[in-house]
Amino acid sequence: MSDDWKEGQYIANANGHVNVCHFSDTFIIYVHYLCRREAYWLATPKYEPYPLLLGEKDTPYCPIFYQEHQIYLSFLQTCMDFFCQSIIAGIPLRGCVSSGFALMDSSKSIYFGTPLVEAARGEPARKALGISFGKSFNNHHPVYNDYFIPFLDFIKTDDPKSKFISRMVLDWPRYWRISPDFKDFSFADCIKRMNTNPDFSEYYDNAISFFDFSNEHENWYEEINRDGISDIIDYYKKTEEWFKSVT
User: Fold this and answer.
1) Is the separation of the CB atoms in 115 and 99 below 8 Å?
2) Residue 4 phi/psi, 5° resolution?
3) Angle 177-26-2 (CA atoms, 0-180°, nearest 5)?
4) What pLDDT, in 10s, does the model give residues 109-147?
5) Residues of the chain with pLDDT under 50
6) Within 10 A of 81 (CB to CB), how many other CB atoms are there?
7) Alpha carbon distance 244, 123 (integer Å)
8) DSSP symbols for 106-164
9) CA 20 to 30 Å from 209, out of 9, 38, 92, 148?
């Protein structure tokens, strides 16, 4: 990547809300909810009558996450765009989307807070390229179903760090399929060019499997039985039942 990748085609900042820093082998993409500029979309938003708006019982409620939902969606679109660009550029990434309060000071290179801890611990619990949601997903956000999809197979269930990630995965394959920047590229071919070390082939092969799963179940949320759902724990039970029935 060129030195100006933050300002060029590789990342868009949703009118100043989304920021990026990097060091060593790590990228941090984060959003300022208290930024008072109007957010804009990186893709055409879709109205959906049933977003996921269910928190765990006895978990914190923070109204700003709901009030500024459009910022969060712009942030997720940025994450998907960033990931897709990385695959075309030949850079394998695993990531985790976390929510909460943190200190992010780019001018002083200070970054700390519980969302960063959750993301750092949750990311290695995946055995595939891609982006999971952290467990904080359960507490804070209404998210349109087009932005995520349940996928249980790639969680390292024997890894204690798996407790830091949600069962939901960011549905970047959908973004790849509909984006004019990516839809003409073969995702499988891009992945195969990177899959050169047999010790890590599973991570690449699993990414291709997930891409195919997303394509086959594009309207997965219409297949799930939502009867009797009162919170996200019930929702996860329903999604797990559905996932086992189709895999």
Assistant:
1) yes
2) -100, 25
3) 70
4) 788 888 888 988 888 888 999 999 988 887 766 678 888
5) 1-11
6) 22
7) 23
8) TTTTEEEEHHHHHHHHHGGGBSSSEEEEETTHHHH--B-GGGEEE--TTB-TTSGGGGG
9) 9
pLDDT, tens digit, 9 for 90 and up, residues 79-110: 898 899 999 999 999 999 988 888 877 777 78
Overall size of the chain counted in residues = 247
Q: What angle do CA 65, 70, 152 make, to 5 degrees?
A: 70
DSSP 167: E
Amino acid at position 8, single letter: G
Tokens matching residue 154:
């790639």
Backbone angles phi, psi at 143, to 5 degrees: -130, 130
DSSP readout, 58-95?
Answer: T----HHHHHTHHHHHHHHHHHHHHHHHHHHTT---EE
Instruction: Give the bridge partners for 103, in sequence order.
Output: 112
**What angle is formed at CA 129 by the lines to CA 128 and CA 134, rounded to 5 degrees?**
85
Q: Which pTM was predicted?
A: 0.84
Bridge-based pairing state of the strands 102-105 and 110-113: antiparallel
DSSP state of 221: G
